[in-house]
Amino acid sequence: MTTTHRPKVLVVDDDHYTRTLIDHLIAETSEVRLAADGAEARRLFAAEDFNLVLMDQRLPADNGIELMREFRARRPHLVGILMTGYADVRDAVAAVREGMFDYLTKPFEDLESLEAVIGKALELDRAYREIDGLRARLGEDGTPAVIGQSPAMERMLGQLRQVSGLDTTLLLEGESGTGKDLVAKLVHAWSPRATGPFMEVNCGGLPESLLESLLFGYEKGAFTGASAACAGYFEKSDGGTLFLDEIADMSPKLQSSLLRVLQDHQCARIGSTQPRHADFRLVCATNRPLPGEVKAGRFREDLYYRINVVALRLPPLRERKGDTVPLAMHFLDHFNEKFGKACGPLTPAAVDTLEACPWPGNVRQLKHCIERAVALHPGGPVDVMHLCPSGISQADCSPIEQDAEPQQRAEDIPGYEEARARFEQDYLRAILAKAEGNVSEAARLSGIPRQNLYVRMKRWGVVTD
Ligand SMILES: Nc1ncnc2c1ncn2[C@@H]1O[C@H](COP(=O)(O)OP(=O)(O)O)[C@@H](O)[C@H]1O
Ligand SMILES: [Mg+2]
User: Fold this and answer.
1) Cα(364) to centroid(ligand 1), Å
2) CB within 8 Å of 278: residues ≥ 6 apart
3) Residue 55 sits in the same domain as residue 176
4) What distance in Å separates the CA atoms of residue 215 and residue 155, rounded to the nearest whole number?
5) Sequence-separated (6 or more) residues with CB below 8 Å from residue 384
6) Ligand 1 pocket residue status of 180, Cβ below 6 Å
7) Are residues 310 and 185 in the same domain?
8) Residue 90 sits in which domain range?
9) Does some domain include residue 3?
10) Pocket test for ligand 1, best of 143, 283, 364, 370 (most atoms within 8 A of CB)
11) Cβ(181) to ligand 1 under 6 A?
């Protein structure tokens, strides 16, 4: 989804200075409404659809967290930021736990990071709207959920919509894990053949003779072990769609057999000469570009032209930055439901980490990462530590560098003291988050005496008072 109009932001704070400051800061990019108390906030909230609410924790007659809870009961995916004049880690963590996106401490010292937090929160709202809209669009027709709001995916899905209804052969190109299987199913669901069968064969990894009998079928006694006649996938997909995955792996012999079937629209089972009509729409997929295979003599040129009627490229996830977070939230929902858990929302740091990772294994890798996180997490906000050690390796998180040296360059290695300081800060933050902001509990979990732990947390700014 691309929002051409400006997002609506509700700012609730009894302090005139704070309201005005935020208004000035974001008025150019957002439509801002200001409320000085709970009553005014309720009135505005009832009248308009807000993309973001910035809520003061202490209001004259209301508690900001409770008011936010009230709003979220009506709009479960409402994104909110809590503003607190009392730098209390416990309240802040509790707010994030409630599903509040983030919290800010007042007075605001750094306007840039204030803007950045608001920007991120609005991104999250866009992501929620995308998946909510998607769910609504999904309906009961069984169309697979395909998340794609990045320009690259929107373009691809637009083309797909145009060609789905035509009966043309389609070639899907893309790295492993980019969604080729999923898109093949979508083409079928969007086509007039949707009520017919969808048959899928992976041409990689199967011995030639097995693949041949799978595709063509056989008559009884055609070869040893053929104790009964069996229809092949060409026949079985009659009236529907046949999806040939990893087509580049097909042997030269089968390539020429396939070419003949495509030219004649008929095929014969092994052990028979009787031609059978085969009316299927062909969708092929490959993760190796076929022109290179043709050049190398591994793929028949004539077959390439026959299947390359319409070719669509599925962009790798690293070229679809805007899709990573909506996909992660979609998978979070999916695995919460599957495992009966309540993990989420993603913390701002988790959102950053997901966005920074280049995902060499594409959507499949992201899906596995979220699956592991949900499986291992007892519930509540999903932070970097839930994603990182298991789901994304350090190597995956660092940007891809062409011709990068496998070893870390000497100038990238910090001094021992700095490395230790970084470790300590990360550790303290993680243990405090695990203890839900409770320092005594963090002391118990870490085995560090409470007073000692507290002093260290203060030193690194992990707690502020
Ligand atoms: N745009 C998307 N939206 C939702 N799920 C996706 C999307 N793209 C891929 N997936 C999921 O990621 C996994 C890998 O996708 P798949 O279609 O098998 O990739 P490929 O065939 O290109 O290797 C599947 O579980 C698929 O459902
Ligand atoms: Mg696949």
Assistant:
1) 6
2) 234, 235, 237, 238, 261, 265, 266, 267
3) no
4) 33
5) 347, 349, 350, 353
6) yes
7) yes
8) 8-135
9) no
10) 364
11) yes
User: Which residues have their alpha-adjacent CB atom under 5 A from ion ligand 2?
Assistant: 180-181
CA neighbours within 13 Å on the CB side: how many for 173?
A: 14
Do residue 168 and residue 285 come from a single domain? yes
365 CA to centre of ligand 1 in angstroms: 10
Q: Are residues 452 and 382 in the same domain?
A: no
- Nearest residue (by CA) to ligand 1, atom 15, is 179
Query: Domain of 182: which CATH number?
Result: 3.40.50.300
Helices then strands, counting H and E runs in the chain, come out as 20, 16
Reported as a pLDDT band with limits 50, 70 and 90, residue 439 is confident
222 and 191 part of one domain: yes
Q: Which ligand 1 atom is at minimum distance from the Cα of 330?
A: 4
Please tell me whether residues 222 and 366 are part of one structural domain: no
Total tally of structural domains belonging to the chain: 4
Domain co-membership, 303 together with 326? no
Same domain, 114 and 158: no
The residue whose CA is least distant from atom 12 of ligand 1 is: 364
Best of 154, 170, 181 to mutate for ligand 1, by most ligand atoms within 8 A of CB?
A: 181
Q: Which two tokens stand for residue 381?
A: 């906000």
Cβ within 8 Å of residue 175, ≥6 positions away? 287, 314, 316, 362
* Per-state percent for the chain, helix, strand, coil, to nearest 5: 50, 15, 35
Which token pair is 202?
Answer: 């992976």
Place of tokens 């439901």: 337
d(CA 12, CA 55): 5
How many whole angstroms separate alpha carbon 76 and alpha carbon 70?
10
pLDDT tens-place string over residues 377-424 = 888 889 888 886 444 554 454 433 333 333 444 445 666 666 777 777
Local structure of residue 245 (DSSP, 8 states): E
pTM of the predicted model as reported, rounded to 2 decimal places: 0.67
Digit-coded pLDDT (tens) for 135-156: 555 544 567 778 888 889 888 9
Percent of the chain with pLDDT over 90: 46
CA distance 368 to 420: 31
Residue nearest ligand 1's atom 25 by CA: 364
Encoding tokens for residue 284? Answer: 């092929």
Look up the CATH number of the domain holding residue 353: 1.10.8.60
